[in-house]
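Ticket 4471: requesting a sanity check on a complex prediction with flavin-adenine dinucleotide. Repro inputs:
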Amino acid sequence: MQTHDVIIVGAGHAGCEAAAAAARRGARVALVTLRADDPGTLSCNPAVGGIGKGHLVTEIDALGGIMGRVADAARLQSRLLNRSKGPAVHGPRAQVDRALYRAAMAEVLAELPTLAIITAAVEGLLVERGRVAGVETSVGRLSAPAVVLTTGTFLGGVMHIGSQREAGGRVGAQASDLGAALRAMGLPVSRLKTGTPARLDGRSIDWSVLEWQYGDGDDPRFSRFGICSAAGNGRPPIPCAITRTNAETHRIIRDHLGESALYGGHIDSVGPRYCPSIEDKVVRFGDRDGHQIFLEPEGYDDITIYPNGLSTSLPLHVQEKFIRSIKGLEQVVILRPGYAIEYDHVDPRALTPGLGARAVPGLFLAGQINGTTGYEEAAAQGLVAGANAAALALNLPALTIDRTQAYIGVMIDDLTLHGVAEPYRMFTSRAEYRLRLRADNADQRLTPLGQALGLVPPAQADAFAAAQAERDAARALLDTLTATPHQLASHGIEVRQDGQSRSLFDWLRFPAVTHAAARRVWPELASISDDLLASLAVDANYAAYIARQEAEVAALRRDEALALPADLDFAQVAGLSKEMIERLSRARPLTLGAASRVAGITPAALIALLPHTSRNK
Ligand code: FAD
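Returned structure tokens:
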């Protein structure tokens, strides 16, 4: 039997990130997956990032993860979404080339000397004396004290096109029946669903009648310091096109609604509310005159087009009919029909904040299996689970991230405390401390933590240290340079004449003090790059709000420092009502802070818990 420190099951987005994190911490890792070309496979849309999701990618990168580097290397075009809004909600997003994404992922994984990729199906989990001891695979047994399950949509996967049903994890891939093993271990397993649109032949689209959408000229990237030499770089960005559904499209869909897997009664599990099928959109927002559809190329050397916004489980003949009613798509050829998929997931309330299964020591879960949807959500969990699997195997410090530190912390706190009623995806609105949690400061928030845990590669750590030194020097200069309103006026900068001398850092909050104007007044600024000055101006603008948030963060950290025993029997806590006992028993909070965030928990219940707390070390 082969022995490893950590076994990762599944080389999707969660699995690859988990493998990289565990290997970076020095673990001997086996990444076991169904097909050799799994690493870097994008099951659905050819894009990474977006609002909230882009934050996750920059945080993964700041912690030494790989998704940002891979996406940068494979991009077809990139944009900063929400650019007109405040920097806290700017969302980097890249359209990527599927083939290049795989190539770049393979290159990045090949850099990890302690990682072995094994093509096999994991058929069971080995458990000894109540702890995970390894996995049973189609090519033999593997042993390890820590196993990370990242099986995506594959557990009990059933694909639906109209009334047709077929077992499978995604098109062209077998399903996995590990769900039964998880149920047998007492883990709470239930069903969710998601869907994908048809893929179109780009040569059959009339591009001449469509509107184009280009990437941003400044080509925003996810990774500040990551280096990935894989192919894509150097080729010119390519645009997407935009079209719309119309009244005729909606009529066709409505006329055939009963034939859709969802509305025909073939599926009853819940799908992602924020990524609805076109049937859902027509039923829910039927009065709209049309829904925008983005025609996204799948690669530089690929004729396939992904029609973003047309996810469906209608039969193929209906898909053909409604898609051809859309402008530019009148003659379109469908390369592959859209479909819906139902799969098993585990209620993430069964997990600790480190993503370990409470009931089965040594078992970690990450990605779609925990009820999330999206590559970025999966990858972020993978990094945490992989880092903690290595911690368990090698007796290293664990990685936990709280809500005040990162969107990753927000997501894991939401999942492990509240569970999911529908596939969970990230939004900036989920983060209460979002002024601090910006995509542009992810490295400052997280790279030191990643470094301390051995997750950040040396080249990235060096580049970060150099950038921090430059930033600190620039900030010191902005604090030193001062001017009165009168002095600014003498350079043609009109601000309120209140007679108060301010530092340049403070003046940067005033709209009249543009960066060009500041450079005119203070030639010393020549030593600061445009990007760095812009980033420091963001700090200046948010300084007052962030100071206010710091007080809330301090209060939260105080409550987070009060630990509750993992095996606390809430029924035995004096003063808790039946309802409070039920809510707390389901969520199993590990700190007083976490207990306070369980829905419906009263201040009286928190007071009742106080005698059971102890101070976290
Ligand atoms: P995956 O990327 O699915 O990877 C799972 C991996 O596990 C695979 O490599 C598989 O081979 C491997 N595996 C599974 N079982 C075993 C086993 N027993 N032994 C060995 N290996 C195994 N996300 C969105 O954000 N929006 C969408 O609209 C959307 N639509 C989707 C539509 C479809 C049809 C599908 C399939 C997925 C869709 N997704 C969507 C989800 C997106 O693909 C996932 O969120 C993301 O890929 C999850 O990453 P993961 O690492 O958890 O799993």
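Notes from triage: The chain has a mean pLDDT of 92. Leaving this open until the requester confirms.
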